[in-house]
Specification:
The longest helix is centred in the C-terminal third of the chain and has 34 residues. The protein contains 21 helices and two strands. The protein has two domains: 191 residues, Growth Hormone, Chain: A (Up-down Bundle), CATH 1.20.1250; 221 residues, Growth Hormone, Chain: A (Up-down Bundle), CATH 1.20.1250.20. Helix 3 packs antiparallel against helix 8 and helix 3 runs parallel beside helix 9. A hairpin with a 2-residue loop joins strand 1 and strand 2. A two-stranded antiparallel sheet has the order 1-2. It is an all-alpha fold.
């Protein structure tokens, strides 16, 4: 007997598992366990399961950044080779996340998400067991494949399972889980590396991955791919898109190191735009494209994607700039700098669920614009913090985190609310791809602006003193802060002019689609 239960994006038929052979039928039908599905708060079990993947991904990312110096000592390889532990992961993740979103729309988000836990955990185990740098890089690629499966489906699963009136709050809770992983990672990673060895920076993922795999299979709803499952996958589109985006990311992350005018960079800068243009031309004519370009005809969707990309650039540009200044100009230790910076993700984790809740009640436009203006105001306040006033600096950084936390869940909810039910995976993949692109743009752009102004001012690193305020120690830092402020203001303006984005609008749109 079929038992329907309502999810946020429509009706999904759930087959109840009989008492005598419930687990056996569950394994065959892929339906959620009745013990979970029958509960009034079932949707929050789904959100909690997705939060496990969000937490694990950010925990791994924050710990992995600490490993480069250790791995260089362990494997006795050049720094340029060791950095591929991070580079390979990023290139594969950005290149494949949209593909896995499309495949999940076709064959099931539950299956893809659960498989992502398994692949990521297997890759983590292989990373910890690697005895050579080459093996570690290959294992990191496997990790990135699993991470792409998880990231492509996280917000799509939440959007499917949660009623539109709670969508912002649910995405805010997921954002809090990501921020907690990001804030816990450095301290936990440092402890694991120093006490148990670098391998445990990867082994720590195994218990979380095991719990996530079991919970994913028992809790998550089926997506009911339906007609989408009969559509063929766009393999040619993937063959053009994946290398095009991977090369673009490589150019952005390595251009300054290798030289923008080096033969390798010039060749890659000629290849990547050609591939991406070919991809757009092919997707426009393909009957079943990997990326449905019709999504971008929706002003709310396209403007929110651009705003999201710029918001990540602001956040990670600031997180790139501030440690450089604290360690080089103010001579703080890495440990002290790391502790100071935890104010950002902690504040983000606190603000995100509240922002999501408010967006459910009052719409997302005011929160997104206001959040980025708060973040911009925090950047200006950084210039007023006296050197040595650590608590004041942490308070200003917390304001930056609160601004980004107020922006991100409402903006993500607006993106997913604008996507059709059968394109949630693709929309989620695009959303998460912009995180990688925005992060890279923020770091590379901020570094380029800082270097440019340092050359103009002819400045050298000088330690600060108690008579000078933090970011006016050098004019280059002042100009770089203004660059990030400009990005924050542009993001706020885009959020204001993108059109109305409220849960009421999204719900009405869905009702029309169902009718």
């Amino acid at each position: 007997m079929l038992r329907p239960f309502r999810l946020g994006h429509g009706l999904v038929q759930s087959r109840a598992a009989a008492a005598g052979g419930g687990l056996h039928r569950l394994a065959l039908s892929h339906e959620p366990l009745r013990w979970f599905a029958d509960r009034p708060g079932y949707r929050w079990w789904v959100v909690g399961t997705v939060c496990l993947g969000a937490f694990m991904g950010q925990l791994d990312a924050s710990i992995a950044t600490l490993l480069i110096p250790t791995l260089r000592r362990v494997f006795h390889d050049p720094l340029a080779d060791v950095e591929w532990v991070a580079i390979a992961y990023l290139l594969v993740l950005v290149g494949l996340v949209v593909m896995f979103g499309r495949l999940a729309d076709m064959f099931g988000r539950k299956e893809m998400y659960t498989l992502g836990f398994l692949v990521f955990s297997a890759g983590s185990a292989a990373c910890g067991a690697a005895g050579r740098l080459e093996v570690l890089i290959i294992a990191r690629i496997a990790q990135a494949v699993g991470a792409a499966m998880l990231q492509a489906n996280s917000v799509a699963i939440i959007t499917q399972a949660v009623e539109r009136s709670d969508l912002g709050r649910a995405i805010g809770i997921q954002g809090a889980a990501q921020a907690i992983g990001l804030s816990v990672g450095p301290a936990l990673g440092g402890f694991l590396i120093s006490t148990l060895g670098w391998q445990w920076a990867f082994y720590i993922n195994l218990p979380v991955g095991a719990v996530g795999t079991v919970m994913g299979w028992l809790v998550l709803p089926t997506s009911g791919a339906g007609q989408t499952k009969a559509e063929p996958f766009d393999w040619l589109g993937l063959a053009i898109f994946a290398p095009g985006t991977a090369i673009a990311m490589y150019i952005a992350s390595q251009g300054q190191l290798l030289g923008w005018t080096s033969p390798r960079m010039l060749s890659l800068m000629a290849i990547s735009p050609v591939l991406l243009i070919l991809f757009l031309l092919w997707e426009h004519k393909a009957r079943f494209p990997m990326v449905d370009l019709q999504l971008f005809k929706d002003r709310l969707f396209s403007a929110s994607i651009v705003a999201g990309l710029l918001s990540y650039a602001v956040l990670f540009g600031a997180l790139f700039l501030i440690p450089i200044f604290l360690e080089r100009a103010l001579r703080q230790t890495p440990e002290s700098t790391g502790l100071t910076l935890t104010a950002v993700p902690v504040a983000l984790a606190v603000a995100a669920p509240f922002a999501g809740y408010l967006s459910d009640r009052f719409g997302s436009r005011g929160l997104t614009a206001g959040g980025m203006l708060v973040a911009g105001g925090a950047l200006l306040l950084l210039e007023k913090v006296p050197a040595g006033a650590t608590l004041t600096l942490m308070a200003v950084l917390a304001l930056l985190g609160m601004g980004v936390g107020a922006f991100t869940p409402p903006n993500n909810a607006a993106i997913m609310g604008a996507a059709p039910r059968n394109r949630l995976g693709v929309a989620g993949g695009i959303l998460n791809m912009t995180r990688g692109l925005g992060t890279t743009f923020g770091v590379v752009g901020t570094g380029a602006v800082l270097t440019w102004w340092q050359r103009i001012y002819g400045e050298e690193w000088k330690p600060g003193d108690g008579r000078r305020v933090v970011f006016r120690v050098t004019g280059a830092f002042h100009q770089t802060v203004l660059f990030l402020l400009a990005l924050a203001i542009v993001t706020a303006v885009i959020s204001l002019i993108r059109g109305r984005a409220s849960i009421l609008d999204a719900g009405m749109g869905m009702e029309q689609e169902l009718l």
